[in-house]
Design brief:
mainly beta; 4-stranded antiparallel sheet; 5-stranded antiparallel sheet
Length: about 270
């Protein structure tokens, strides 16, 4: 026969709990918890901390919002926790039989639904989703009792970073939304469709050389040589519409010269 115990303390250092037994009020200390897998270097340790409420920790008449009920068996007379039971009213049980919900005590949540849509959510609001639609799942209230509330660590400022060994390639996303990509090798963007870079501020290309292999269209003004460099064009130059000036002088198709007389003399400077 197995017995039910109320968890009053957890000990991740040896994967054990302290219990008050529900049937007779007896106290058990350091009861080891069965794991789905465990070895000297692998396994899972996840024992939610019992919230400190003050007073006598052995007094199980008080609820703490994270109440834990352990199912206890005895192996050769030694008690072992073989699993846990959800309290009758809780924030975890679901109406959808195809959904898997994992929630850490920090309020980090992952959800997989019956269509294979995956959501991983940090309590600050940072989320990653793989699914048929881009909109993130909102876990609040999705449980059977409708009381699931993510109310821990909501004010944390979370970064996301993906990096290779030795940081040879790093992608960092800041809480404010700034994105930085660093790589020590080549960075290729290969798209079969159009590529759009849009910003109301500016785009800076900081490189010794920039090469455009196709046509270049500039819809507004083009400034060259602002840093003291020169412009070299190979091939024909065609100007359609507008005017062409050099140091304020019109050298386009409408410019004129003064002092012109028939014969072989030279013209004056352009007007």
């Amino acid at each position: 026969m197995m017995r039910v115990g109320i968890v009053v303390a957890t000990h991740p250092e040896d994967n054990s709990v302290d219990l008050v037994m529900a049937d007779d009020g007896s106290r058990l200390v350091g009861v080891q918890v069965l794991s789905t897998s465990a070895s000297a270097r692998s396994g899972t340790v996840d024992l939610p901390e019992v919230p400190a409420g003050g007073g006598d920790r052995w007094d199980v008449r008080r609820t703490n919002g994270q109440d834990q009920k352990a199912l206890v068996a005895f192996a050769g007379g030694t008690p072992v926790v073989v699993g846990f039971l959800f309290p009758q009213i809780n924030q975890m049980t679901l109406n959808d039989p195809k959904t898997r919900l994992f929630r850490h005590q920090s309020d980090v949540v992952s959800v997989i639904d019956g269509n294979g849509n995956i959501d991983l959510r940090h309590p600050s609001g940072f989320a990653v989703r793989i699914g048929e639609t881009p909109d993130h799942l909102v876990p609040a209230g999705m449980n059977a009792d409708g009381n699931l509330a993510l109310d821990r660590n909501t004010g944390r400022q979370a970064y996301m970073r993906i990096s290779t060994a030795g940081n040879t390639a790093v992608i960092t996303v800041s809480p404010s939304g700034a994105v930085r990509i660093e790589c020590q090798q080549t960075l290729d963007i290969d798209a079969q469709g159009a590529v759009t870079i849009k910003t109301p501020v500016s785009v800076t290309h900081d490189a010794p050389n920039t090469i455009c292999t196709g046509n270049l269209v500039v819809s507004k003004s083009l400034t060259m040589g602002a840093g003291g460099g020169t412009a070299t064009m190979n091939g024909s130059l065609s100007v359609v519409g507008g005017s062409v000036t050099h140091n304020g002088k019109n050298i386009g198709d409408t410019h004129t010269h003064g002092g012109v007389q028939p014969g072989g003399g030279s013209t004056a400077a352009p007007n």
